[in-house]
Amino acid sequence: MVLQRLLPWAVRAAWAVLPLALGPSLGAALDPRSRAVQLVAAGGLWAGWATALLATLVPSPIALTVARVVAPGAGAAAVAAAAEGHGSPLALGAALAAIVLLLLPETGQYFVNGASYPNERRFPLRPPAAVLVLVLPLAWALCVGGPVAGSLLLAARQWVAGGVASALAVPLTVVLGRSLHGLSRRWRVFVPAGLVVHDPIALADPVLFQRQVIAAFGPARAGTTALDLTQRAPGLALELALTEEVPLVRTTPGQRGGLPAAPRAVLVTPTRPGAVLREAASRRLPAGP
User: Structure pTM?
Assistant: First the structure.
């Protein structure tokens, strides 16, 4: 409980002091550049820092996406400064601390519940393993790196390369930004009526599993035949066993309208399975399976 109260302030503090820790290294790295490049780079850095700081003050799913998209940029900037011979342990450590704090599962839970109703409790789901390892880093690099590269190339008067990079960056940022935000909108939600699975990646629409049809809820059984909604996410899968079939529509790539199903049990993988089980117990849901 104490950690949950202090964590948001730790995130804000780590991000607030970042200019003091990272600023000197970045300033030294930009010093040999042209005045135009310095102004564009400094303006972008300050804009990114202010945007992420504001996001930490107004928790919501969109704020989580913004903060987590911007945060790795601090690490990239620190590494770039170090590559120019202007790195420091303080700069690298401060950037790493800010990134780690923003990526903690507890931080994600705090943000997504910022927009929840008073009688509901949201628990984020883990990203699929393939997305986490392969797709996410590439999507981030294109989403953030494209606009940065285009702006700096134009500032350096590399008109053709900068124009092409900027023109490609706009649609890429819109499409990839929307996809990245989809990862922040994947939850298991406790509501008075039961449990809701809200996962745009796995389901065409959120599904409510009413309290009266929940037979058991707990860690997945070995060899279970439950419908797998985990998307092969790493971590402990939780199984929701039902007393009757509940209709739902799964999303399927390339198939319009999705794939209907009516399972008697489903699997999901939350970022904090222990916290989910404690919440289930506090709401007196049947333990198991």
Answer: 0.91
